[in-house]
Design brief:
This protein is 0% helix and 48% strand. By secondary structure, the protein is mainly beta. A six-stranded mixed beta sheet has the order 2-10-9-4-5-6, with no helix packed on it.
Length: 114
């Protein structure tokens, strides 16, 4: 069973930065397009950023220019560098494939104070 483990969240002031990590078990990771998702308080889970297996990124408009997605296939790990954080970025952040067909992990909480 594939496992996804997110880490790196925390409490940060507006304007600050955090770097999230997503580590996947198994060798499937390097062949799949992966993505970060988030679920804010009282909101549905939304797609934030995606990265193809060959490294092409794309982002939701609200994070463009502030977030950077990357991956290290040798480590089965994906990252989300988040800069210039805003209170509206507060959410639990998850990783999964772009098809959302892996079991969801616990996520990592990001809280941005104003």
């Amino acid at each position: 069973q594939v496992q996804l483990v997110e880490s790196g969240g925390g409490l940060v002031q507006a304007g600050g930065s955090l770097r999230l990590s997503c580590t996947a078990s198994g060798s499937f990771f390097r062949f799949r397009s992966m993505a970060w998702y988030r679920q804010g308080p009282g909101k549905q889970r939304e797609w934030v950023a995606g990265l193809t297996s060959n490294g092409i990124p794309n982002y939701v408009d609200s994070v463009k220019g502030r977030f950077t997605i990357s991956r290290d296939n040798a480590k089965n790990t994906m990252y989300l560098q988040m800069n210039s954080l805003k209170p509206e970025d507060t959410a639990v952040y998850y990783c999964n494939t772009v098809q959302r067909d892996a079991e969801w992990g616990q996520g990592t909480q990001v809280t941005v104070s104003s």
